[in-house]
Write a structure and sequence with these properties.
CATH architecture: Alpha-Beta Barrel
Largest sheet: 4 strands, mixed
Strand order of the largest sheet: 1-2-4-3
Number of domains: 1
Strand content: 5-15%
Distance between the termini: 7 Å
Number of strands: 4
CATH superfamily: Alanine racemase
Shape: flat
CATH class: Alpha Beta
Radius of gyration: 16 Å
CATH topology: TIM Barrel
Structural class: alpha/beta
């Protein structure tokens, strides 16, 4: 699974696509994450403040955004790490320099698979 995901993702850039001028929505390359940057920053800060005031760390789930740049903002706000729901999401995050990446569906022992840091609950989870 990891090898297949790596092969399928190898050609994809991690850099955002910048536009010099606004473009019609129909011309935005897909898949695309379109968001309100002020709202994003406000929500990340709100989550960090809420949990920090209670002495809790937070490890946001990247499946909600699938975007290394958003994950970086979450870490900068105090996140203790990042979660991924699928191996392909973890590979994108690892290629962007994140790690270890937690898969909460298979939580546990730290493993190195395919050169990427990834946390698994069991050897069975690492094989799947």
């Amino acid at each position: 699974m990891i090898e297949l995901s790596e092969r399928l993702l190898a050609h994809r850039t991690l850099a955002p696509v910048d536009f010099d001028v606004p473009v019609p929505l129909a011309d935005v390359p897909t898949p695309a994450l379109l968001l309100d940057e002020d709202a994003l920053n406000r929500n990340i800060a709100r989550m960090a403040d809420f949990l920090g005031a209670r002495g809790k760390g937070f490890r946001p789930h990247a499946k909600t955004h699938k975007c290394p740049q958003v994950a970086q903002r979450q870490l900068a706000a105090g996140a203790v790490g990042i979660c991924a729901a699928k191996v392909s999401e973890a590979i994108v995050l690892a290629r962007a320099g994140f790690g270890p990446i937690l898969d909460p569906a298979t939580v546990g022992a730290f493993e190195r698979k395919g050169g990427y840091p990834y946390a698994f609950m069991s050897e069975d989870g690492a094989r799947s």
